[in-house]
């Protein structure tokens, strides 16, 4: 992934394009975390993902912790945080292969309460690929000891650059149709 250097925030400014999409590469933090639209202004992942990498076996590994701002019950994560971070990290597996995709289905098992502000790990792998569909699974564990806290699996569908333009066109059509009512 070509880059133009690292700014003061540690976020690497991209100058390349995702293979096959024509879309600009998203920026990455010093920890290698690809930033989505909402996190770019902050220069950090708001879900608390600190590091990400692809290991030799093709498994994506993440270091993270649940920020206090996502506390649900006392000292434990809101389930919405757990689902969101699993969606985000599972979707980063195609990204780490230079492929853009969107979540089509996601199933989450909440195995144990997730403590806030504790080091966590997440492993993500592809069970199989069929055409444009990636069948991805992952497991969140407590960093010391490796107790499983949550599991997720789902389907990601690869997209090309027309995805968002197509959406904008579809939305404009919906708005136009309701304005005429
Ligand atoms: C770091 C940067 C990260 C950036 C990536 C972030 C990734 C995410 O956040 S993903 C967000 C959550 N997921 C989504 O928004 C996906 C929404 N769903 C979809 O786009 C589609 O259902 C999708 C692509 C999964 C379906 O794919 P596929 O199964 O191949 O079905 P396909 O036959 O092409 O389309 C199914 C329906 O969706 C519609 N559709 C597909 N793509 C689009 C689109 N871009 N715009 C509008 N409608 C669309 C089709 O027209 C069709 O509609 P209908 O049933 O009425 O004919």
TrEMBL record:
Renumbered to this chain, region (Disordered) spans 1-26
Q: Which reaction does it catalyse?
A: (5Z,8Z,11Z,14Z)-eicosatetraenoyl-CoA + H2O = (5Z,8Z,11Z,14Z)-eicosatetraenoate + CoA + H(+); hexadecanoyl-CoA + H2O = hexadecanoate + CoA + H(+); dodecanoyl-CoA + H2O = dodecanoate + CoA + H(+); decanoyl-CoA + H2O = decanoate + CoA + H(+)
Query: Quick one: where is this thing mainly located?
Result: membrane
The UniProt entry, under InterPro entries, shows: HotDog_dom_sf, THEM4/THEM5_acyl-CoA_thioest, Thioestr_dom
- Provide the transmembrane region boundaries: none
Using the record's annotation, list all stretches that form the Thioesterase domain: 76-145
- The protein's name: Acyl-coenzyme A thioesterase THEM4
Q: Which UniProt keywords apply?
A: Apoptosis, Cell membrane, Cell projection, Cytoplasm, Fatty acid metabolism, Hydrolase, Lipid metabolism, Membrane, Transit peptide
- Protein's cellular compartments: Cell projection, Ruffle membrane; Cytoplasm; Membrane
- Enzyme class, broadest EC rank: hydrolase
């Amino acid at each position: 992934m070509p880059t133009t250097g690292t700014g003061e925030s540690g976020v690497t400014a991209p100058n390349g394009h995702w293979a096959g999409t024509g879309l600009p590469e998203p920026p990455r933090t010093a920890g290698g975390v690809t930033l989505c639209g909402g996190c770019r202004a902050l220069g950090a992942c708001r879900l608390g993902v600190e590091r990400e990498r692809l290991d030799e076996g093709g498994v994506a590994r993440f270091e993270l912790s649940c920020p206090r701002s996502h506390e649900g019950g006392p000292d434990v994560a809101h389930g919405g945080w757990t689902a969101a971070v699993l969606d985000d990290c599972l979707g980063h597996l195609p990204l780490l292969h230079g492929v853009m995709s969107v979540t089509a289905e996601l199933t989450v098992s909440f195995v144990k309460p997730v403590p806030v502000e504790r080091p966590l790990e997440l492993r993500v792998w592809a069970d199989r690929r069929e055409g444009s569909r990636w069948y991805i699974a992952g497991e969140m564990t407590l960093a010391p000891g490796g107790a499983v806290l949550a599991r997720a699996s789902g389907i990601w569908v690869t997209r090309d650059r027309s995805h968002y333009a197509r959406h904008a066109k579809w939305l404009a059509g919906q708005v136009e149709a309701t304005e005429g009512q």
